[in-house]
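Before we proceed, please read the two lines closing this message. Let me know whether the structure tokens fit the sequence:

…
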Amino acid sequence: MSLQTLRLKANADKRLRGGHLWIYSNEVDTQATPLKQFEIGEQVVVVNERGKPLGIAYMNPNSLICGRLVSRDVQTPLNRSLIVHRLKVAHSLREMLYPESCYRLVYGESDGLPGLVIDRFYDIFVVQVSTAGMEAVLDEIVEALNKVFNPKAILLRNDGKMRAMEGLETYTEVVQGELPELCPLSENNTELLAPLQRGQKTGWFYDHRESRAKVQQLVQGKRVLDLFSYVGGWGVQALAAGAEEVVCVDASHFALEVARENARINNAEARFTGLHGDAFEACKALVAERERFDLVVVDPPAFIQKKKDLRNGERAYARINNLAMRLLKKGGVLVSASCSMHYQRDRLVDMIRSNSRELDRSAQIFHVGYQGADHPIHPAIPETDYLKAYFARILPAG
């Protein structure tokens, strides 16, 4: 394969040499290598201003991040062979950590495959491609999955928001096998079902696995409220661990139907209540009805998707956590989570502090949750470290 060369400006190779994988358009020497000469998805050899090779990247000349490094060996492009190797390396980590074959198999840059996410549900694999460079090798990705795992079924959930930024169409397609409407999975010794085709993202959120396990230690005989519950990832695992009652709140009728089915297969439907509607309005109603819970989980969607959303997003996090605290019994536990990468941990802690003081209470943080080990953090790419969950006991001021 003969590849074109992409030349960087002077000193623009520092981040790449430090381990990062992204190339920004303003780092390119466009006099020597004009961006318009590259095709979307094309692979190139990246060199510094002195012509020293740095590796192979795929390109999108129309994007702010115009290149993503996929190999530091200029003789090894992104092809079926390299994808097979990266899948095997990724699999070895998950196999070491999880006895059941249910996990995020590929987490983009952290697994050396930027723009690619693969979630595994036993022998069913859900693939999400968010960049043009990965879309260009989609056939090779499917072939590599078959080489390493021989899947029963492969679903492409290529309907994420990032695709529009890359100039890609969105679509969902079963490219191999047949999918059940609800796909079985196992998490924290709990059998569950996920709607892979109709659900959010890949159909399930594996990233809070460890924090859900912590919740299971706290809920025996307790009353639990699961806000933004989706299909009951937190709430149903609380039921499986012996919660006396769980109330799941979500804006989707369909998600609550799946949550109820998840409760049923865990012999806990009688202890499950689904509340359909906006979580903010549902909390206001529960406060007015003087309802109280031993533990409340606040795990909303990303209120802060971009830096410009920071102010309004912080207000939203503060409002919903304030309502959640009002719904806790004395000494109850708040689990306050955020998947917004731009919402820093210290800001979330300060929000818990300020809300507790506003309500004349004190907060006692006793556990901090992070993304699961199947979402490994790339030490050079802060964006791969996005998830947090603070466990706080909310006490009367004293």
Notes: Residues 124 and 153 are 5 Å apart (CA to CA). The chain is about 30% helix and 30% strand. The chain has three domains: 4-71, 80-176, 183-396. Residues 80-176 form a domain with the Transcription Regulator spoIIAA fold (CATH 3.30.750.80).
